Amino acid sequence: MSKNKGVNDLETAIHNTSEIGRLRRVLLHRPGQELENLMPEYMERLLFDDIPYLQEAQREHDAFADCLRQSGAEVVYLVDLVAASLTDDAVKQELVRQFLDEAEVQEQRAREMLSELFLSLPNREMVSQMMAGVRKSQLRETDQARLKDYLAATAGDYPFVIDPMPNLYFTRDPFATIGRGVSIHKMHTKTRNRETLFAKFIFKYHPEYKSVPRWYDRGETTSLEGGDILILSPEVLAVGISQRTQEDSIDQLADTILTESPTFRKILAFDIPKTRSFMHLDTVFTMVDRDKFTVHPNILNDITVYVMELDENRKMKIRQEEGRLEDILKEHLGLDQVTLLRCGEGDEIDAAREQWNDGSNTLAVAPGEVVVYARNYVTNRLLEEHGIKIHTIPSAELSRGRGGPRCMSMPLWREDLQ
Ligand SMILES: NC(=O)NCCC[C@H](N)C(=O)O
């Protein structure tokens, strides 16, 4: 792939062989009405710690998208991809049917009314409405009257007929591009599991994406989330064993990838503490250059790395690594030196504060060039001192969802590293 090629010349739908190759096409979701459907009573279940101010969150998100465009990436939005996957009425009806199943709307009359509501909308608006959720008050008065008993019995005072999906702007998690393929995830929580239905439709019906190889699927029984998957090189993947990703899922992913992908040879499984602030591997560890990584200092004593690879009989071998993380990375990536850049410069308080606001969660747009939240100025200064070029984006509202630039993006196409 030549650096001079235009985005339209990218020959394959998906191409992602590293964390840091020049980013050429990336998937985002601009936060929408789903954030306006957050209420304090239900925030914890919906995985938010506070309610972002939507207009400001959108301004911040637009600044993020502009920053990615200026660094040479085409920005693609989730609603547009899903809308373009609804290639005919039958597919649109199939999405509505499965969406209602997964939103657990079982009563026949309620299903009919909601189907009518969704199918009356153009594709893009319909998808946005699904994402936003449906308030009881949005149903026509006549429908509310007809459904009175059903609504009282199923929801009581609960104000939604269908829950919002406020975590959609973290496009990193419901599916992940790996090499030329994709893993579609079974999510750890019910609230986020509904997000992966959109990925199912993109990779089943979208004209450009429907033939992409599949490494993992949403029908699996154990959870795997994209924030736990890092592509350290075309041969080596890192996958977090975390609050969100189970060991069995990594076994399953490793079996498929190591057998079927033409390049990946090894998976490093990083066992990290299972807590909310470290929910995924990328909340404590990201790659910023060929030999440099950000890390949350608090996990360094609490991390165990396992190496998974196929032996000469193509049977999976797993062994535990000993020693410092720097040395393990050096060995498996064939590097002379690895530098770990400690969040908050390693200061106990700055590290905790900045990691909570995703100081270790950087998105590389090229080797040694990353997008970071402006608020994490201590970590950002350290990155610059080590020669990393940083692009800062505003983050007062976006950070309330507990995810940073890497969490808010899914690379669809990166250039290979030379
Ligand atoms: N990769 C990531 O760490 N994504 C951030 C996800 C935040 C979201 N509120 C969640 O709890 O799933």
What does this molecule look like?
By secondary structure, this protein is an alpha/beta fold. It folds into 2 domains: 13-79 and 167-232 and 285-300 and 324-414, L-arginine/glycine Amidinotransferase, Chain A; 81-164, Arginine deiminase (Pentein), CATH 1.10.3930. The protein has 13 helices and 19 strands. It has helices spanning 54-70, 78-85, 89-102, 108-119, 123-132, 141-146, 148-155, 190-193, 196-205, 247-260, 325-333, 348-356, 377-385, and strands spanning 23-28, 74-77, 134-135, 160-162, 175-178, 181-184, 214-216, 229-231, 236-241, 266-271, 285-289, 292-295, 304-310, 316-320, 339-342, 363-366, 369-373, 389-393, 410-414. Strands 8-9-10-13-14 form a 5-stranded mixed beta sheet, with helices on both faces. A 3-stranded mixed beta sheet has the order 2-1-19. A 3-stranded mixed beta sheet has the order 5-6-7. It starts with 22 loop residues before the first strand and ends with a strand. Bound molecules: citrulline.
